[in-house]
């Protein structure tokens, strides 16, 4: 478990943050400049808090009150940055060996062959970094960090420098390493899809402050009705199971207690749990599902709350069968025309094209240049 309670003042920026990560992947989520990377630097020992305490699995890394400060190389922490930062003059095998070399033999609890297998880099061992794609370089960087046998893995926006295709390629590997190794991960991102897909715990930050900590479905939900553009960032996180794939149309059908959800791409395996994000602006409300529409997903839900700040929009929260919440931003004009009220049952229509593949596990990613 990682416990952070710190304060820092630097060049007009103020950070005051406290949270705990129980294990698995804990995501630091928020806009640029909110303090996510500063926390990563503090945990790694690359910066020191003005006040506070950082504890990892019972080991005190920093405590300003008692004067404890563990040197960075003694913290048993692996680091992965946006830029893979591989040694260009070394092969992939030598880059992997570099991290392992500085780990005492009695601390080498991560198996090299297992890392190579999980990250799919066996065919890259003899190559130099300059000959690798961005996604391949990041996989090697993750492997090098894992082979230090760290007690914690810090990943600072590891996908930010990659294009969408490379992100789709590497996300499954991050997912796999999260599940295959008993190493907690502190993961920085401002991508809703990445966070919803990967995280067990989300720490939401704004302006150097922690504003929410909890499960993705709780923390990523919209917090208010709004007329500003941040309504586009509001999402619902839904969970179901892969029920069927339809190769002819390139879609997968997800079984959910409130109805079938059709998502883009072919997902595997059948029966696997699937988490997906739905943008609050991508939900249309109707009295009933009409067959005369191209929208294939219609979830039945009871209107739990309608909130408006008097502007053009209203935030409608539905309680779906199974207990999950689905949020929809609609115009007050449209809502009045629908005549829907709290407590009533409506159909929530979701277009398949509005669901982002980056939030889906088990997606078949076509190789570049394939048809």
Secondary structure: elements and pairs:
Layout: E1 2-10, E2 13-21, E3 25-29, H1 36-44, E4 51-56, E5 59-63, E6 68-69, E7 77-80, H2 92-101, H3 112-119, H4 134-146, E8 152-156, H5 164-180, E9 185-189, H6 192-198, E10 201-206, E11 209-214, H7 216-219, E12 235-246, E13 251-256, E14 259-264, E15 273-279, E16 283-286, E17 297-307, E18 313-320, E19 325-331, H8 332-338, E20 345-350
Word description of this protein:
The protein is an alpha+beta fold. It has two domains: 2-219, P-loop containing nucleotide triphosphate hydrolases (Rossmann fold, 3-Layer(aba) Sandwich), CATH 3.40.50.300; 229-359, RNA polymerase II/Efflux pump adaptor protein, barrel-sandwich hybrid domain (OB fold (Dihydrolipoamide Acetyltransferase, E2P)). The chain has helices spanning 36-44, 92-101, 112-119, 134-146, 164-180, 192-198, 216-219, 332-338; strands at 2-10, 13-21, 25-29, 51-56, 59-63, 68-69, 77-80, 152-156, 185-189, 201-206, 209-214, 235-246, 251-256, 259-264, 273-279, 283-286, 297-307, 313-320, 325-331, 345-350. A six-stranded mixed β-sheet has the order 7-8-9-3-10-11, with helices on both faces. It has a five-stranded antiparallel β-sheet with strand order 2-1-4-5-6, with helices on one face. The radius of gyration is 22 Å and the shape is globular. The mean pLDDT is 91.
């Amino acid at each position: 478990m990682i416990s952070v309670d710190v304060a820092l003042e630097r060049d007009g920026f103020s950070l005051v943050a406290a949270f705990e990560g129980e294990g698995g992947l804990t995501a630091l989520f928020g806009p640029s400049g909110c303090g996510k990377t500063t926390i990563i630097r503090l945990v790694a020992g690359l910066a020191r808090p003005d006040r506070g305490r950082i504890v990892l699995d019972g080991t005190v890394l920093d405590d300003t009150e008692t004067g404890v400060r563990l040197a960075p190389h003694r913290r048993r922490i692996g680091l992965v940055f946006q830029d893979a930062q591989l040694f260009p003059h070394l092969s992939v095998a030598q880059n992997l060996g570099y991290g392992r070399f500085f780990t005492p033999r009695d601390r080498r609890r991560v198996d090299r062959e297992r890392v190579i297998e999980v990250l799919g880099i066996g065919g890259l061992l003899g190559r130099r970094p300059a000959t690798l794609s961005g996604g391949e370089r990041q996989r090697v960087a993750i492997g090098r960090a894992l082979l230090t046998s760290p007690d914690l893995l810090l990943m600072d926006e590891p996908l930010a420098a990659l294009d969408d295709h490379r992100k789709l390629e590497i996300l499954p590997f991050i997912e796999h390493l999260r599940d295959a190794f008993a190493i907690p991960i502190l993961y920085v991102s401002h991508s809703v899809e990445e966070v919803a897909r990967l995280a067990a715990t989300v720490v939401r930050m704004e302006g150097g402050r922690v504003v929410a900590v909890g499960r993705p479905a709780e923390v990523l939900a919209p917090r208010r009705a709004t007329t500003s553009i941040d309504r586009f960032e509001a999402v619902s996180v839904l969970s179901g199971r892969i029920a069927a794939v339809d190769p002819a149309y390139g879609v997968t059908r997800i079984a959910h207690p409130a109805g079938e959800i059709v998502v883009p791409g072919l997902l595997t395996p059948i029966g696997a749990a699937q988490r997906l994000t739905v943008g609050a602006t991508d939900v249309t409300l109707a009295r009933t599902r009409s067959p005369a529409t191209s929208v294939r997903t219609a979830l039945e839900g009871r209107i739990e709350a309608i909130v408006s700040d008097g502007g053009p929009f209203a935030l409608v929260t539905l309680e779906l069968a199974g207990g999950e919440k689905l949020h929809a931003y609609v115009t007050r004009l449209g809502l009045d025309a629908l005549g829907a009220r709290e407590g009533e049952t409506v159909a929530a229509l979701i277009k398949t094209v509005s669901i982002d593949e980056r939030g889906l596990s088990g997606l078949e990613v076509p190789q570049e240049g394939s048809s």
